[in-house]
Design brief:
Radius of gyration: 23 Å
Strand content: 15-25%
Helix content: 40-55%
Structural class: alpha+beta
Strand order of the largest sheet: 7-6-9-4-1-2-3-10
Largest sheet: 8 strands, antiparallel
Shape: globular
Distance between the termini: 31 Å
Number of helices: 8
Length: 386
């Protein structure tokens, strides 16, 4: 029953979040055109290539030619009026320049991989009235990427609805992620300096480990690994992800008391996963590293999250309302981790609403819920102990 309630609550919150980050009444362009560019800017294609919108949602073109740059083009109709217009993108990674009718325009957020979330934070452009002309207008997006040319889903229209969606996206994808790091580290510190009875020590250590690994995982969204050369950047990313997933499994086992008698098994799984990532990185082939490490992340996420959800369901069935509350909170956060991993692989959408693809990661935000909820649980336990 608790598991069902956690799923209903999670998908309801996700639906409300996705609705808030999409402009009212706006729709995606079904396809746009693209031309590949040489290093000197020369156009390599005689005719523009039509690139459809994928469920990610993003426009992606698989390129085996080795060209490192491309220019996406989108035409839209503008009718002069007093209302300012804007451009809103879900994220801006690997976009080097945006032009309106041949003139560069500037975003309200940094346009590089050192922006707050490594380029995956939302971005808003004001479309200058002096550059807009009645009738047909053209936007150009210059992107870089060898194997894939990718452009995020975007919207063009009146400023007010786009700004409202951008503000919500900024809150969910940036502000709450930063807040989650601070609160999780504070709760972990609180756990570390508080004397706990021997019966609670192992559970608290499991929670501290999860909070610290979740904080470190959130930090990885800041693009701090951008200076690491490939393929070791991917090795670092996936090693951290594997450690986080095993830490999540260890927390579930230690908190519920189910499976906690085999701590060496969790250590062995973590060491094997990280060792596999390092051995794969020795090949020196960035595409091969991604090919072998990405499926492991998906499989580990699905298996360990499903196991943890089952453990908390059994945990809730053995106690009263306090255990039900704990299980509901942790199952909500665990679901976010699993959905993020599966969405990366299978491009999920809101159930019964396929026109609503998932556009932001839920797990980084749920770190804040995890920390605040854990704090209330620890306070309640302390009061009952007294």
């Amino acid at each position: 029953m608790v598991l069902l309630l956690s799923q209903l609550l999670f998908w309801l919150l996700l639906f409300l979040g996705e609705r808030s980050v999409l402009p009212a009444g706006a729709s995606y362009a079904p396809e746009i055109r693209m031309q590949r560019l040489a290093e000197d800017g020369a156009v390599l294609d005689a005719e523009p290539i039509a690139v459809p919108l994928l469920p990610a949602p993003a426009y992606r073109y698989r390129d085996d030619s080795g060209a490192g740059h491309a220019r996406f083009e989108h035409n839209f109709e503008y009718h002069a009026g007093d209302t300012p217009w804007a451009l809103y993108l879900s994220w801006n990674r690997r976009i080097s320049e945006v032009r309106l009718n041949g003139r560069p325009i500037t975003a309200r957020a940094p346009l590089d991989i050192w922006s707050v979330l490594g380029g995956f934070d939302p971005v808003l452009y004001d479309l200058p009235a002096e550059l807009l002309r009645p009738g047909s207008n053209q936007l150009e997006f210059q992107v870089y990427g060898v194997a894939n040319k990718i452009l995020p889903a975007f919207f063009v229209g009146e400023l007010t609805p786009l700004f409202n969606a951008y503000a919500w996206a900024q809150l969910i994808s940036v502000d709450l992620v930063v807040a989650a790091i601070g609160v999780m580290l504070f709760v972990a510190l609180l756990c570390a300096i508080t004397p706990w009875p021997a019966s609670e020590a192992q559970r608290v250590r499991g929670l501290m480990g999860l909070l610290l690994l979740w904080s470190l995982r959130n930090f990885s969204f800041f693009g701090l690994d951008a200076g690491i050369p490939p393929p070791w950047r991917q090795v670092t990313h996936y090693s951290l992800t594997y450690l986080f997933l095993v830490g999540l499994a260890w927390f579930a086992a230690s908190w519920t008391g189910l499976g906690v008698r085999r701590p060496r098994l969790y250590a062995a799984v973590a060491a094997s996963a990280v060792g596999w990532a390092i051995l794969t990185g020795l090949s020196g082939d960035n595409a091969r590293v991604f090919h072998w490490l990405f499926p492991v992340e998906t499989a580990l996420s699905a298996i360990l999250v499903a196991l943890a959800l089952a453990q908390f369901s059994r945990y809730a069935a053995r106690g009263g309302w306090s255990r039900a509350y704990e299980a509901l909170l942790f199952q909500l956060c665990l679901t976010a981790v699993g959905v993020d991993a599966l969405d990366d692989r299978y491009d999920l959408s809101i159930p019964f609403a396929p026109q609503w693809p998932l556009t932001f990661y839920a797990a980084p935000v749920c770190g804040l819920l995890l920390a605040l909820g854990s704090c209330t649980i620890l306070v309640g336990q302390s009061q009952r102990a007294r």
